[in-house]
Amino acid sequence: METTHLCTKISSLPNELKNEVNNFIDFLMSKKKIKKNEKKPKFGCAKGKIFISEDFDEPLDDFKEYMS
Question: Which pTM does this prediction carry?
Fold first, then answer.
């Protein structure tokens, strides 16, 4: 869509709706800035921070009677 066509449409709106359009444009611009500033975590950045206990695969005490 051409800019002139958008400007023509916006200029024909009443002032209340022009304010809404302005607020929406500000919202879209801030959304774009947030996406730009987001950093993706690097692969392996949590290495050494997560541990699994040795008995992870062992049956739970609550279910032992069902497992035997």
Answer: 0.46
